[in-house]
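Pipeline run #58 for the internal structure catalog. This entry was flagged by the ingest filter as a single-chain record with no existing model, so it goes straight to prediction. Upstream metadata was stripped on purpose; only the residue string is passed forward. Reviewer on rotation: M.T. Logging verbosity set to normal.
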Amino acid sequence: MIQQLVDGVLVGSFLSLGAIGLTLVMHILRFANFSHAELLSIGAYVALVFDKLFEALLPVFATKIGPLSMDWALVLALFASIGITALSAVVIDRLVFARVREKGGELSMVFASFGMALIIRNVIGLIFGLQSVLYSDEIAFAMVLSRDPLLLVKPDQVFVLIAALAIMVGLHFVLSRTTFGFALRAVAENPALAQIHGVNLKRMIMIVWLLGGGLAAAAGVFYGLSYQISPVMGRDLVLPIFAATIVGGIGSVYGAVLGGFVVGIASNIALSILPSGYSPSVPFLMILLVLLIRPHGLFGEARA
């Protein structure tokens, strides 16, 4: 049970990053973006391409980092992935969602997001194939944290947890200590009121897409360090990310962080109780439970 708890915390670290961008988009634009998890796939595969590119052009960066399975080329690829995925999110919004937003309602946006998810997933499959791939074939042996009870953690998982927490702390300081952060939080809480007070709503929407896309890219790369990446990883992650968003409360960044860890821990603990085939249903059950007991989530507020 303790091992599942530790694994759940590690899984929750990248679920939280994915949920932050989703909760902001859902709160500001008021639609369930089912294509958001595909941004994790874009980020993971962009990092894969740049990792191989940097290794070929700059062999010195192919050096492995200590006990980790990753090399310095993948670190550079991570930053490239964050930038490109963030821009991809803005382009998707400009080409698809913004046009649907002008002519249709919330339901049309949901259908458009379903379509975008299918398009992105199949394009990735056509380009990279349907097989799962790894960033590195290097074997990173697990560290023994405790022998009684037995606790095993891979160095890559520790890195993912530390990096994800560092990003969250950095985001916290941006949101709580800067003018931009105050404006972003104001838009997340009440877009109409923020616009009345002089906040450029269109610019803030673009920044939200940039922020959500960048965080999704980091989450996708961190997922790839712990698991294999595949064109269907977005399909597998969309429900846990939505569960984290709803549990934490739509519109609450801190709720999304907490929700990610709650969903990660609950899903992994369920593996020790339920047959493995039933574990994917845990996020769905959590969504139903939260909607029944506290429809606006742990940190969310009821909206008119």
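catalog note: The chain has a mean pLDDT of 86.
catalog note: Residues 72-103 form the longest helix (32 residues).
status: ready for reviewer M.T.
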